[in-house]
Amino acid sequence: MHPVVENGFAVERQVSLRAYNTFGLPAIAQTMVRVRSDADVRRVLADPQLGRAPKLVLGGGSNLVLTRDVAQVVLKVEVRGMRLLEARDDAFVVEAGAGESWHELVAWTLGQGYAGLENLALIPGTVGAAPVQNIGAYGLELADRFESLDAVDLVTGRSVTLDAAACRFGYRDSVFKHGGFGGLAGKSLITRVRLRLPRPWRPVLGYLDLERKVHETGLTAPDARTIFDWVCAIRRAKLPDPATIGNAGSFFKNPVVTAEQCRDIIGRDPHLVHYALPDGRYKLAAGWLIDACGWKGKSIGRAGVYDKQALVLVNRGGASGAEVLTLARAIQESVYGRFGIRLEPEPVVV
Ligand code: EPU
Q1: How far is the CA of 117 from the centre of ligand 1 (A)?
Q2: Ligand 1 centre from 252 Cα, in Å?
Q3: What span, in angstroms and rounded, lies between the C-alpha atoms of 168 and 40?
Q4: Ligand 1 in reach of 171 Cβ (< 6 A)
């Protein structure tokens, strides 16, 4: 269907979102507008019909579970561009449009000689979605490389710049995931992100899978390109490629428990995978907990648990969002029943 041009921007109606979420879940957006700049967002906000309607901001759809058709106006972020903003003695600062692919940004920075994002290679999704859930992998998270971002306030239309403190980054969390007072979920649209890549570059090799690569290859001082290749290989071996098997990465966050809870579980399950946190608590591997409950490779309907990583739920072909949630709830119940731990979903459920 051809979009209808209204007030200088193109409105698409009755759009299938199946190709716009990496889980490949079916849902129809009644109204969708692609935004390529701050000015595009302001044009939508100034529109008499669309301006005041609730909005859903869509990036790469890689952290999204669609359980129903979307009545909100979908703003599909397509702000482009990647550039070096500043070459300081202590860092390269790069800026990218929110609509760029995250992985392409990582590859571009390395190609230009600005190392520092290699541990975050191959994470699906867009640059604009990266701060929303503070993406992380292999010992590094976005917050470690973050400089600032630009966003448009979806009520006033004003462009604002937020620093790391204003983004309130946490483990797979930020101000953009929270509604209510002080939260920015649904209230702002990220248009550009700036990252700080420290000079001199230092490798981050503390994560077990990378330590293993150092050991296997004997390369004790790998360069950034080598680490990039290692991370790509580790991810390809463990995680399903959304282009072939629909998924949204880890479906649950790794839960944090008290030392007492951790000891109690180890008393019953000595193999529990756990990591000490600086505050005395412990982070548990949700994948291990789910695996221990026997879920790996299992399915409910057309939604399944990936056979190489139990933390990843997959679309076995034609699943609905409801089927994914039914599976997720069954997993939560069995993990709670056996370990007394409530797993919290990582993706946004719509
Ligand atoms: N494990 C099992 N069985 C499983 C899965 C995992 O026993 O089925 C065990 C592993 O053997 C390992 C431990 O659990 O000892 C941790 O597994 P892994 O290294 O695969 O990492 P994870 O904790 O499951 C987290 C992130 C991933 C990120 C990796 C690497 C979360 C929720 N997930 O997974 O992020 O790529 O570490 O840093 O924090 C995502 O957020 O979408 C994501 C993929």
Answers
A1: 19
A2: 10
A3: 27
A4: no
Question: What 3-state DSSP class applies to 13?
Answer: strand
Structure pTM? 0.95
- CATH topology for 4-77? 3.30.43
Q: What percentage of residues in the chain have a pLDDT greater than 70?
A: 98
Question: What is the C-alpha to C-alpha distance for residues 140 and 120, in angstroms, rounded to an integer?
Answer: 7
CATH code of the domain made up of 82-198: 3.30.465.10
Question: What amino acid occupies position 340?
Answer: G
Tell me, in angstroms, the distance from the centre of ligand 1 to residue 309's CA: 7
What pLDDT, in 10s, does the model give residues 192-213?
999 999 999 999 999 999 999 9
Among the CATH numbers 3.20.20.10, 3.90.78.10, 3.40.50.300, 2.40.30.20, which is that of 246-349?
Answer: 3.90.78.10
Domain residue limits, the chain: 4-77, 82-198, 246-349
* 299 among known catalytic residues: no
Q: SS in 3 state form for 206-230? A: CCHHHHHHHHHHCCCCCCHHHHHHH
Please list, in sequence order, all residues whose beta carbon lies within 8 angstroms of the beta carbon of residue 117, skipping any fewer than 6 positions away: 105, 106, 109, 110, 145, 195, 197
- Please identify which of the residues 168, 172, 192, 235 carries the catalytic annotation: 172
Nearest atom in ligand 1 to 137's CA: 38
User: Between residues 22 and 179, which one has the greater pLDDT?
Assistant: 22
Tell me the pLDDT tens digit for each residue of 75-131. 999 999 999 999 999 999 999 999 999 999 999 999 999 999 999 999 999 999 999
- DSSP bridge partners of 303: 300, 315
